[in-house]
Amino acid sequence: MKIAVLSGKGGTGKTLVSVNLAAVSPESVYIDCDVEEPNGYLFFKPQDIKNKRVTVKLPQADSKLCNGCRTCVNFCKFNALAYIKNNLIVFNEICHSCGGCLLFCPQKAISEKDREIGMIQRGISGNVRVVTGMLNIGEASGVPVIEKLLQDSRKENKDVFIDCPPGSACMVMESIKDADYCILVAEPTIFGVHNLEMVYELVNLFQKPFGVVLNKCLEGENPAEDYCLQNEIKILNKIPFDLELGTMNSNGQIAVRKHPKYRDLFQNLLQAVRKEARHETASDS
Amino acid sequence: MKIAIPVDDNSMDTSVCISFGRAPYFLLYDTETEENNFLNNSAAASQGGAGIKAAQNIVDSGAEAIITPRCGENAAEVLKVAEIALYKNTNNSIRDNIEALKEGKLNLLDDIHPGFHQHGGS
Ligand code: SF4
Ligand code: SF4
């Protein structure tokens, strides 16, 4: 089962939920798709680390073959190319590596070279295989890194927990594409409702089954809970606002590995997710 | 000397456009012959890399200088390779800026901003 955990913005508890769920599952894979700011590995502190570079193809023109016809410049819909003073200039960060310019160059003047945009790090932490995507600073899009991250997970028969990037942009869409179930994490504030709405629209767009985890819950008013009730959104669990949990979290400790109280909480959550996901697949067929 | 200015409309009475890559038109003005021409900015509608495409169009037009309020990093790189000088406008009037350039009163543009990408979270 593949479970994606998402939230409208960072700091909502997305990593807390995905890390603890992965840790409480008997055998699992945790994939950190928050490639601009991965932090799941700080909790897991994985061993036996292996790194793999992620590269994309970048076009390169041979100035001896190029006759300046500009077919490539006109073709590139991202405007990643310019032809100035008898030279083809390629803007690395804008190029989407579609390969079109290479295909359409009448002179066969364009070849491809590899450009590194990030890294994938794999390691082990007890019962969890920890996979982390890291995007190099200054890169515009982490989508190629996320694609690589999720490629391998397709073959997985263990539980896979995907820690998504915050927000609802294209990197998040890439991350939830093959998830069986989505968990939306929300904070109990008006602002939290706004963030929840964003991801709620996204999972609806992708027609993914989903449920909400309400984090940092206090006694009294909870606008996020009201929103869920109004829209008939399944609430999977409520995590109380709790200083002990906050301290463990800021110290990079995994709550379920430290305290039976949290072990129970996340075990229950995992069970609720399993039940919901199974229910969804059953009603699908 | 041929100069280019991003403008809001294809008329000499319009004003300097605040955007470079997304300007609807470029005025091409020849300071010797006083001829003017308006170039339709085909880059204005592009999803990304508008500055690069606009810069390419201006280079192709044969302009040797540009007067603009601002310019993105990538467009600036194209213009640098093409050795086109970038000047900052003083106000929104096309005529004032052309006069100021003729008199050597315009400063070079140093406000080069990093590009706005279409990706990433918000
Ligand atoms: S299409 Fe090929 S020959 Fe034409 S400008 Fe591009 S690289 Fe040069
Ligand atoms: S590979 Fe595609 S995106 Fe990159 S420069 Fe060529 S046409 Fe443009």
Topology:
The complex is a heterodimer of chains A (285) and B (122).
Chain A (H helix, E strand, L loop, with lengths): L1 E5 L7 H11 L3 E5 L7 H5 L2 E15 L9 H5 L5 E4 L2 E4 L9 H5 L5 E16 L2 E8 L7 H11 L5 E5 L6 H7 L4 E6 L3 H16 L4 E8 L5 H8 L4 E6 L2 H8 L4 H4 L1 H25 L1
Parallel strand pairs in A: 1-8, 1-9, 2-7, 2-8, 9-10, 10-11
Antiparallel strand pairs in A: 3-6, 4-5, 6-7
Chain B lengths: L1 E6 L17 E6 L5 E5 L9 H12 L3 E3 L3 E2 H9 L3 E3 L6 H9 L9 E2 L9
Parallel strand pairs in B: 1-4, 4-6, 5-7
Antiparallel strand pairs in B: 1-2, 2-3
Helix pairs in contact in B: 1-2
Bound molecules: iron/sulfur cluster (2 copies).
What does this structure look like?
- The complex is a heterodimer of chains A (285) and B (122).
- Chain A is α/β, with parallel strands linked by helices and 285 residues long.
- Chain A contains 11 helices and 11 strands.
- The radius of gyration of chain A is 22 Å and the shape is elongated.
- The two termini of chain A are 16 Å apart.
- The mean pLDDT of chain A is 91.
- Chain B has helices spanning 50-61, 73-81, 94-102; strands at residues 2-7, 25-30, 36-40, 65-67, 71-72, 85-87, 112-113.
- Chain B is of the alpha/beta class and 122 residues long.
- In chain B, strand 2 and strand 3 form a beta hairpin.
- In chain B, the strands form 2 sheets. Chain B has a 5-stranded mixed beta sheet, sandwiched between helices.
- Chain B has one domain (2-113): Nucleotidyltransferase, domain 5 (2-Layer Sandwich), CATH 3.30.420.
- Chain B starts with a strand and ends in a 9-residue tail after the last strand.
- The A-B interface holds A 36, 73, 76-85, 87, 89, 91, 93-94, 140-143, 165-172 and B 43, 46-50, 52-53, 55-56, 59, 74, 77-78, 81-82, 115, 117-122.
- The site of one iron/sulfur cluster has 14 residues of chain A, from helix 4.
- Residues 59, 75-76, 78, 80-81, 90, 95-101 of chain A line the site of one iron/sulfur cluster.
